[in-house]
Design a protein that fits this description.
This protein is of the alpha+beta class. The chain has a single domain, classed as RelE-like (YaeB-like fold), CATH 3.30.2310. The protein has three helices and five strands. A five-stranded mixed beta sheet has the order 1-5-4-3-2. The longest helix is centred in the N-terminal third of the chain and has 14 residues. It is globular and about 35 Å long. The relative contact order is 0.23. Pfam families: YafQ_toxin. It comes from Planktothrix serta PCC 8927. InterPro entries: RelE/ParE_toxin_dom_sf, Toxin_YafQ-like. This is Plasmid stabilization system.
């Protein structure tokens, strides 16, 4: 599955890595796993409720989450993952 990064995700990723440089490798590992196998138990992928209803989240580290949506590419009809946000639990929810 292809990963698509929103501009908001790119900004949040940059801020997250600046605050916690040690997370850079872990984030890269989790993004690769998300791309290959979005429902791998390591990611603890789950659907969100409330203001983010319809979106999904997975865990990078103890207090780091990635918020994303499954979207369909209009040109190819293939399902892709749109990365929406990354940060601590309180930042993304």
């Amino acid at each position: 599955m292809n990963l698509i990064t929103s501009s908001a995700f790119k900004r949040a990723l940059k801020a997250t890595v600046q605050k916690n440089p040690q997370l850079k490798v872990r984030i890269a590992e989790r993004l690769k796993l998300l791309e290959r196998e979005p429902f791998n138990p390591i990611l603890r992928t789950h659907k969100l409720k409330g203001d983010l209803a319809g979106a999904w989240s997975c865990i990078v580290d103890y207090d780091c989450r990635i918020v994303f949506n499954f979207v369909t590419n209009e040109n190819t009809g293939e399902e892709e993952i749109l990365l929406i946000n990354i940060g601590t639990h309180d930042e993304v929810y």
